[in-house]
Each structure stands twice: as structure tokens, then as C-alpha cells.
Amino acid sequence: MIARRSLALLPFAAPAAQAQPRETIVQSERARFRVTAFATGLDHPWGAAFLPDGRMVVTERPGRMRIIAPDGAVSAPLGGVPEVEARGQGGLLDVQIAPDFAATREVFLTAAALTEQGALTRLWRARLAADGSRLEDARTLLDATPAQAEGRQHYGSRIAFGRDGFLYMSTGERNERSRSQKLNDLAGKVLRLTRDGQPAPGNPFLGRGDARPEIYSYGHRNPQGLAVQPGTGTLFAAEFGPRGGDEINVIRPGANYGWPTVSHGREYHGPRISDRTEAPGIENPAHVWVPSVSPSGIAFHQGEAFPGWRGNLLVAALNTPGLVRLTVEGDRVTGEERMLWGLLRLRHVVAGPDGRVYLLVDQSNGRILRLDPA
Fold this sequence. Notes:
Layout: E1 4-5, E2 23-27, E3 32-42, E4 45-50, E5 56-60, E6 64-68, E7 92-97, H1 101-104, E8 106-115, E9 118-128, E10 135-143, E11 156-161, E12 167-171, E13 189-193, E14 215-218, E15 222-228, E16 235-240, E17 246-251, E18 287-289, E19 295-300, E20 313-318, E21 321-329, E22 332-339, E23 346-351, E24 357-361, E25 366-373
């Protein structure tokens, strides 16, 4: 059994629903840190990535992007951002910069997009203008087809660049459970792509007439976290369960992660989703939460600011809201700590180039918090 230890916190000055922390000192198991408001005035910030010069590019789910300076100053919305379907759980989602951004200025985005057939998860590539004021030459690279006419839920979607240089993208099953098991369908999957949005060489289903060649793994419900483990290059994913059954998965080529035929979760009205929590041919999760914590963005910590967290996987949680720290040995999760618990809905966690940790607060009056050594 993995110990789940609550954290004693200094109280925020306001109730959790309206908490506006300016500075709070927290003693965790392996670090003492200060929580400060780094940037404010954001509307449901969803994805973030650091530019080589130390600035941060951030997406807001209603369809805007901004750049945040190292001192926390927030830019005006960038021009040239593609139109998105900002309904339900949809909108502008993740952002990632190219590994060679300094030379190419390429930025990759995922979002909910609307087509004549319905809504789907879409991947774009664009260039950030030299003055940082707009995106240029935005181009659709991939649509997670087929589009779905009904429902605006479970889009995923995170982006990560692997050590192999390819782009990994997660997609949700759009709240249509059977889609995650269909190999001719890009929903409920982790995809592995070239930077042009094409199937990456060596993908597990290349050459099969009954399967989409972009698919790297399948059987996912709504994965909103992707992170590459430093050193090993192993890809980890965080996935929402329904009522319980949230998962951390180690993503392996061609593997089936079981949704909905295998699950630790329950229907929202009570009954179990499945009578099985494991089955032959199904990849078991590295970690499961029952009840749910609603894990979204994840990041491995390697910075000098918190040496006691080095190599740990940090997980942004929405419900119960807070930050989860998982100790990881190889591809095994060996321990868990919960911090800032029950206070603020966290959509994403980003490891900064300065060694600090940045948390995206998912609210209409959203902000970005920074964890500094105390």
C-alpha cells in the first residue's frame, strides 16, 4: 500500500473557493516552500511552456494566448491564434514549443475544434513572431477523427516531445467509451507523430489496414497529462477516471490501457464500470486513485530549488484540488504526498528552467502560482 499523507498547511486568508494567496509557507515531507502569486488576470489557464529566454507562453481555454515575463507581467492576447470550440470542456488546450525553438520559433497547440461533422481534438503548428505579439502561419497538422456531433467533453489533450524527437499527443474518448478501443479511431489514444503531423516511423500499427498508423497506445479515457521521465525517456500519462479510477500510466507502444473494459472506477450514479480491474492483454496502471483526485497536467521535477523532489512526478489535481507528489523508481510509483490540498483547482504543473515549480490555477480569475524554496 502506498501511504497517502495529508499536509499541514498554514491557512490561506480566504476560504478555498475564493483563495487569493499572496505568500504562504508550507512544510512538506521533503521541502519547505513559499507559495507566491506569479501572474494574475488569466481566464482558465490550461497549458504553458517556457521559451528559451525565460518567458512563459500560456493558453487560456476561451481561446487566447499570452506571454508572461520573468517578473510576472502578462502580455496582451497574442494575434493569429486559431479559432477554437470553447464550449463544455473544450477550448484552447495545450501548448509546447519545438525542441529547436531558438532556430525555428515553432509552437504546437492542441484545442477543441469544430468541423461540419462535429467537434474534435486538433493539433496545430505555428511560428511565434519575433516580437512575440502574434502567431504566424498557423497550420492544422492533425484532426483526431472522426468528429462527433454530440457532446463537448473529454478532448484530452497534452503534447510532449520524446527523447526520440517525435511529438506525443493525448486525446480523450469524447465521452463515447467504445471509441477508446477502436483502432480506426483517434479518440482515447496517445498518438506519436512527426513534426508535420504524420505517423512516426516505427509506430506499432503502421501497415495495418484496420488501424490508424498515428496510434501509439489506446484504451484511454481522458488523458490530460504527459511527461517524459528524465534519464530514461519513458513517457508517463495522467488519466481521468470517472468516479474513482484515476490513473498514472507508463505508456508502452501498442499497449491497451483497458478503458472501459477494465476500470477501478464507478458510474457517477454508483455502479462499477466493470467487474474487472485487470485482464490479460491489458496494461495495468502504475498508480490508481480511489476516490478520484482528477489528475490533469504532470511534470517531472529536476530542478535545484527542491533537491528532495528530484526525479519525482508532480501532478496537478482538480478535485479534490491540490498538488500531488509521487516518488518514482524506474517505472514504479513508490509513494505519494498531497500538498495545498482542498484549496485551489490546479490544471497544470510546469517545471521552470529556474528550478522552481509553477502551478496553473483553473478559474475564471485564474493565475499562476510559483513555489520557491523557503
